[in-house]
């Protein structure tokens, strides 16, 4: 008997990586996972309520796949649930759309602007850039020039050009379609944060001695 | 005498090896060359770029040890200056990226969408800081 409808009763679920929700949202299974199942129960599974976000929740909730499997097998004891892919979904509760305050943004902008201007000047002093440039200019022309601006002004614009080339952005216009190192870096940072909350916010995945 | 010459030879060779290895390691960590090959889609030429770096370093060493002068026009220093600046700019950008400044900053003050404006702050800061230094600050 079991063999006959063994295949039929398999439900495949694949947890989504990240889901953004609002406070007081009710989450159904289809919101947090992709589902493949037989026709009869598919609609019901999609509308299976799995979580109710409340104001007491932190801004990150981890839903473990085991919990979902338990729910499904409680409802349909004769189904077999196969989990594919990520074993948990990170639910990000968007409390209020916190926009960055404009003055704060200007402050950060000025911090970076003035900071990088001073840093580059310190760097030039540190490596005796002026003397090196005088020497290169002397090498090229045979004449000594205490301020070889013909070298220094293109050099200064080259600095900006080099940084833009590296970050692959010309004032929001991309030079090609590959991700820039910065985007990869942002992605890696987000991955590390996700990895951290998956382990630490998920009560199921850490078992401590004093956990009783 | 021969021993002395051999000793000086050994010391200078060791010094050069250490500095050269350090220079290449620095370039590798900051990822300037991979970035350039990625932008220009010339991955297959990368060994020629290695030679460019090596020959450039040797030429620079030679130039700084000899008092070599030519009688070219000063306008030749415009492209040389531009290239020199671009290289230093890429080094600076690579360093900023290696230090993970932007991801943390963007996450902290929640401006993932306006991060380009912050990069521009650094870029414009570098350009204007450098111009200010050469035109007014020194001399």
UniProtKB/TrEMBL annotation, chain A:
It holds the Pfam family SporV_AA. The chain crosses the membrane at residues 104-123, 149-167. Keywords: Membrane, Transmembrane, Transmembrane helix. Residues 8-97 form the Stage V sporulation protein AA domain. The keyword Ribonucleoprotein does not apply. This is Stage V sporulation protein AA. It comes from Mesobacillus persicus.
UniProtKB/TrEMBL annotation, chain B:
It comes from the Bacteria. The chain crosses the membrane at residues 6-33, 45-66, 72-95, 115-136. The keyword Transmembrane helix applies. Keywords: Membrane, Transmembrane, Transmembrane helix. Pfam families: SpoVAB (PF13782). The keyword Transmembrane helix applies. InterPro entries: SpoVAB. This is Stage V sporulation protein AB. It comes from Mesobacillus persicus.
């Amino acid at each position: 008997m079991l063999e006959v409808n063994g295949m039929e009763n398999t439900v495949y679920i694949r947890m989504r990586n990240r889901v953004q929700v609002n406070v007081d949202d009710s989450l159904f299974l289809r919101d947090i996972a992709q589902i493949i199942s037989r026709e009869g129960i598919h609609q019901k599974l999609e509308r299976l309520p799995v979580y109710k976000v409340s104001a007491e929740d932190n801004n990150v909730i981890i839903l473990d796949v085991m919990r979902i499997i338990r729910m499904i097998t409680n409802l349909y004891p004769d189904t077999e649930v196969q989990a594919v892919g990520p074993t948990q979904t990170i639910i990000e509760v968007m409390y209020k759309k916190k926009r960055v305050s404009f003055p704060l943004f200007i402050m950060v902008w000025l911090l970076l602007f003035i900071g990088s201007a001073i840093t580059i000047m310190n760097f030039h002093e540190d490596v005796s850039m002026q003397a090196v440039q005088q020497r290169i200019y002397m090498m090229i022309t045979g004449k000594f020039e205490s301020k070889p601006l013909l070298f220094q002004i293109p050099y200064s614009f080259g600095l900006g050009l080099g940084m833009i080339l590296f970050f692959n952005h010309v004032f929001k216009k991309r030079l090609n379609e590959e991700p820039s190192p910065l985007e990869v870096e942002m992605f890696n940072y987000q991955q590390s944060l996700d990895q951290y909350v998956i382990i630490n916010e998920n009560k199921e995945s850490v078992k401590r001695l004093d956990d009783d | 005498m021969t021993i002395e010459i051999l000793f000086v030879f050994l010391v200078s060779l060791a010094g050069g090896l250490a500095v050269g290895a350090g220079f290449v390691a620095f370039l590798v960590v900051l990822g300037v060359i991979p970035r350039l090959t990625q932008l220009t889609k010339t991955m297959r030429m990368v060994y020629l770029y290695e030679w460019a770096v090596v020959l450039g370093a040797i030429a620079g060493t030679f130039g700084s040890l000899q008092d070599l002068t030519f009688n070219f026009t000063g306008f030749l220093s415009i492209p040389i200056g531009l290239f020199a600046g671009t290289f230093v700019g890429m080094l600076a950008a690579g360093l900023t990226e290696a230090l993970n400044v932007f991801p943390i900053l963007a996450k902290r003050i929640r401006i993932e969408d306006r991060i380009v404006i912050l990069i521009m702050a650094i870029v414009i800061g570098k350009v204007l800081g450098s111009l200010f230094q050469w035109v007014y600050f020194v001399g």
